[in-house]
């Protein structure tokens, strides 16, 4: 059973120190703004807290996520779902039994099944789970907006029911304002990233503890 | 459900909040709003409603009193208590199906309604089990471990949940939400519209 009042610490990464259990976070920003970095580091922040973590990648960047994770923590509680369908297998040195594959980013049921397998596997051994979905930008190349939206709606509902912390990434520059806004409404918190004078900056909205404006990304 | 779409009644004395909830729900659900508990009961007698979102603190009849009346009249409706009130142990005896803490979000509210609409199709034992689990979750998020440990009522609630879990077959009970989840994803994939 999850301890009462569970929250997920995010260290010094963001201008907020933690998120409540069941929070779904959307990370937006242009290419190179640090979305994958932030998602992987948020996962790694839970490694010492007896939490499990699941990285769902549609971009074939499991190696990058693993590297970012390992810079911060041991990967013993990390699991992957690779949706590229490339069949390239798990990154070097990463156990295959914590690496699931799904046929394509459009195989939404496959992602759901992989998540259920993950929850059954970690069971009550963990006190909470962090899930990263990287990225919605790729999903939108495989399915239309309506279905992507419904997929996100169902997935975030499930993560909330399981008291997870989820982090989805979206390149805001690749979608129109209406689409971006539509997705934003599905999430409890939006984390925006940008690069100013070579520095990555972050702004958090939807969390009452977050200060207004931009601050350096931790 | 007599309409094509499931129906939701928002009972909320703050008109602004009621209209916000309506805006979040009306695309998917036949949505009604009432600002007073007595008006809500009148509508429930005349109209087939699937889910009621009930504010706990209202002038006149409180949400708790409306809920008692709904159950006393045997109205076949699922009720979510939507409230800014921290849950106390008194919720254990209340007849709601879900407990939502304000401020809510569109996704959270729609998720609750969707869950309750689907729960309407289940048998009574599973409904009661889901309701007890919702109470347990509300208390565990609002009380300290010490307060929970000191509460006889909480201990009895947990015992009852375990008993019912055994009765239903634990795996079966826990699979309910999973099954809905995967079915919903399949529906999205298969929808070519």
From TrEMBL, chain B:
Coiled coil: none annotated. PROSITE patterns: RESPONSE_REGULATORY. SMART domains: REC. The modification 4-aspartylphosphate is found at residue 55. Residues 7-117 form the Response regulatory domain. It comes from the Archaea. GO terms for biological process: phosphorelay signal transduction system. Pfam families: HalX (PF08663), Response_reg (PF00072). Keywords: Phosphoprotein. PANTHER family: RESPONSE REGULATORY DOMAIN-CONTAINING PROTEIN, STRESS RESPONSE REGULATOR PROTEIN 1. This is Response regulator. It comes from Halorutilus salinus.
């Amino acid at each position: 059973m999850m301890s009462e009042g569970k929250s997920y610490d995010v260290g010094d990464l963001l201008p907020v120190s933690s998120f409540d259990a069941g929070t779904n976070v959307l990370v937006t920003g242009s290419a190179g703004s640090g979305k994958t970095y932030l998602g992987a580091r948020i996962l790694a922040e839970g490694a010492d807290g007896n939490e499990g973590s699941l990285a769902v990648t549609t971009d074939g960047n499991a190696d990058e996520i693993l590297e970012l994770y390992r810079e911060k923590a041991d990967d013993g509680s990390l699991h992957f779902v690779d949706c590229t369908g490339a069949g390239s297998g798990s990154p070097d040195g990463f156990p295959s039994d914590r690496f699931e594959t799904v046929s394509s980013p459009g195989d939404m049921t496959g992602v759901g099944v992989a998540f259920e397998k993950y929850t059954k596997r970690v069971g009550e051994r963990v006190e909470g789970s962090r899930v990263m979905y990287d990225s919605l930008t790729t999903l939108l190349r495989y399915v239309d907006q309506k279905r992507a939206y419904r997929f996100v709606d169902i997935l975030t509902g499930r993560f909330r029911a399981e008291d997870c912390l989820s982090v989805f990434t979206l390149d805001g520059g690749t979608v129109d304002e209406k689409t971006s806004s539509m997705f934003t409404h599905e999430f409890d918190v939006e984390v925006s990233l940008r690069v100013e004078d070579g520095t990555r900056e972050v702004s958090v909205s939807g969390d009452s503890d977050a200060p207004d404006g931009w601050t350096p990304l931790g | 459900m007599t309409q094509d779409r499931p129906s939701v009644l928002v009972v909320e004395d703050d008109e602004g909040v009621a209209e916000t909830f309506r805006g979040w729900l009306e695309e998917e659900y036949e949505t009604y709003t009432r600002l007073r508990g007595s008006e809500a009961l009148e509508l429930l007698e005349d109209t087939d409603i699937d889910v009621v979102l009930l504010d706990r603190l209202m002038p006149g009849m409180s949400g708790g009193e409306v809920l008692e009346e709904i159950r006393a009249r045997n109205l076949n409706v699922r009720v979510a208590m939507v409230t800014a009130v921290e849950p106390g142990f008194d919720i254990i005896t209340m007849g709601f199906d879900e407990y939502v803490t304000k401020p809510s979000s569109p996704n959270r509210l729609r998720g609750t309604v969707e869950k309750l609409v689907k729960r309407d199709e289940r048998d009574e034992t599973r409904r009661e089990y889901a309701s007890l689990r919702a109470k347990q979750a509300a208390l565990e998020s609002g009380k300290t471990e010490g307060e929970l440990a000191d509460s006889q009522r909480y201990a009895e609630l947990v015992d009852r949940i375990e008993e019912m879990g055994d009765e239903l077959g634990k795996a079966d009970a826990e699979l309910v939400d999973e099954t809905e989840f995967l079915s919903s994803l399949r529906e999205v994939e298969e929808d070519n519209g």
